[in-house]
Design goal:
- Strand 10 and strand 11 form a beta hairpin.
- The strands form 4 sheets. A 6-stranded parallel beta sheet has the order 7-1-8-9-12-15, with helices on both faces.
- With about 425 residues, the chain is α/β, with parallel strands linked by helices.
- It has one domain: Alpha/Beta hydrolase fold, catalytic domain (Rossmann fold), CATH 3.40.50.
- It has helices at about 5-10, 15-20, 30, 85-90, 130-140, 165-180, 190-200, 205-210, 225-235, 245-260, 260-265, 270-275, 295-300, 305-315, 370-375, 405-415, and strands at about 40-45, 50-55, 65-70, 95, 110, 115-120, 150, 185-190, 210-220, 280, 285-290, 330-335, 340-345, 360-365, 390-395.
- Helix content is about 30%, strand content about 20%.
Length: about 425
């Protein structure tokens, strides 16, 4: 989900992609066959959807502007000069009501005077990071915002919040109808496949048979990743996926993640990870914590709300049991061979930690998600009828995967392939 990476790494692959895909697809017979293209709906990664935050008379943070607006997404091209990173974190910290009588999704609310919206929902410009993918599809005859659409979301929220399910169903159905009733390919990157999987497990088999061609999860973060436990103590800046520069900023940032439900949705699920990796080491006590130890971690850190939210949202989107298999053809992609942060050695368990690079805990992965995360999708090999593949891309970084020539070449092959027909019994 998160890792400091340069956009130019992805863009640099664009020329090579064009060479692999070829530009002949935009002329002659390919153009005549354009109505037969399988439409694509993309689910972006964590905070790669453009958000606009409007502030009107806020009093939550007196040292910040009372009113105004700012953009909020990874590598946004117009960072605010009025709202500091700390102000953005404070104003985007969700309020949490621990009342057990309330359903969990209703316990979260915005700060008074703060409104967040997705910019250009459904359109490719809502997720500009994926420009190499859009251009590759265009080279094969695709048209932006017609047969390439984007199912963006506010990455603070889990897919049971903010009207995600209903909005996404409508987008898929509209895309299907706008393209001659052609079934749609869901393509997701990083956290995006988790939201796509929620859609798959909350629609009927008849709906999936009618509207869906298949599913391409690119480094899907289905069981979560260990790094999110450390973020509760270190914080994280969305602008560059780096870490706060001061302890004060780190404390503000960490508090934002504490009441962000997607923090727990994105953290490694004990049911999948067990005790196979250490996510936190506390130097003050000598104690280590694995995903299975999360209740003790939050108790020792005096974070009772974290335990409540984690109990509900860890492993919230199931995928390993047969009842939650996607029930469509799946062509998954992953990277490997890159040192990947999965946790941290902390001086203690207080929020606002500044961690030196040599204090992070690592294992093999794609530079963002560990091997345990990226290989968990192998559970889908047990699908009885639909096709499943998982292709490794050794040495390809997590954020380079959606622009990688080989990944995009395989995507185009899958889009042109007839889907499996597995009945609707």
């Amino acid at each position: 989900m998160i890792r400091q990476s340069l956009y130019r790494t992805v863009v640099a692959g664009l020329t090579a992609v064009a060479a692999v895909v070829g530009l002949a697809g935009v002329t002659g017979p390919a153009r005549a066959a354009a109505p037969q293209r399988t439409p694509v709906v993309l689910f972006p990664a964590y905070h790669l959807t453009r958000l606009e935050v409007t502030v009107d008379g806020q009093t939550t943070a007196p040292h910040c502007p009372r009113s105004g607006s700012f953009a909020f997404w990874y590598q946004n091209d117009r960072p605010s000069t009025a709202f500091s990173q700390a102000c953005q974190d404070e104003l985007l910290t969700l309020r949490y009501d621990p009342d057990p009588a309330k359903p969990m999704p209703r316990r979260f609310s915005e700060q008074p005077g703060v409104r967040v919206r997705i910019v250009d929902y459904g359109r490719t410009r809502s997720a500009p990071f994926y420009e190499p993918m859009y251009r590759t599809l265009e080279s094969a005859g695709y048209v932006r915002d017609k047969d390439i659409r984007v199912a963006g979301y506010d990455a603070r929220l889990t897919p049971d919040m903010g009207g995600f399910l209903q909005r996404t169903e409508r987008l898929v159905e509209d895309t299907y109808r706008a393209n001659g009733n052609r079934p749609v390919q869901l393509v997701g990157h990083s956290n995006g496949p988790v939201y796509a999987q929620y859609l798959l497990t909350h629609t009927s088999r008849a709906w999936r048979q009618k509207y869906l061609h298949g599913f391409t999860p690119i480094a899907g973060n289905f069981p979560g990743q260990g790094l999110l436990y450390a973020v509760l103590f270190t914080g994280l800046d969305i602008q560059d996926f780096g870490y706060p520069a001061t302890a004060a900023d780190a404390a503000v940032s960490a508090r934002r993640y504490l009441t962000t439900p997607s923090t727990y949705l994105s953290a490694s699920d004990p049911e999948v990870f067990g005790d196979r990796e250490t996510v936190i080491e506390d130097a003050s006590t000598g104690r280590s914590y694995t995903p299975r130890d999360y209740p003790a971690l939050f108790a020792d850190a005096h974070l009772p709300y974290a335990k409540q939210i984690a109990d509900h949202y860890l492993g919230f989107v199931p995928f390993t049991d047969p009842g939650s298999f996607p029930d469509v053809d799946v062509s998954a992609e992953k990277g490997s061979g890159v040192s990947t942060v999965v946790g941290a050695r902390l001086p203690d368990l207080t929020a606002g930690q500044l961690v030196a690079p040599d204090r992070f805990l690592t294992r093999d992965g794609d530079g963002n998600q560990e091997d345990l995360t990226n290989e968990a999708v192998l559970a889908w090999r047990a699908m009885p009828c639909h096709r499943f593949t998982l292709t490794d891309n050794p040495g390809v970084d997590h954020f380079a995967l959606p622009g990688d020539p080989n990944v995009l070449g395989r995507l185009l092959t899958d889009l042109a392939r007839e889907r499996s027909h597995c009945g609707c019994g």
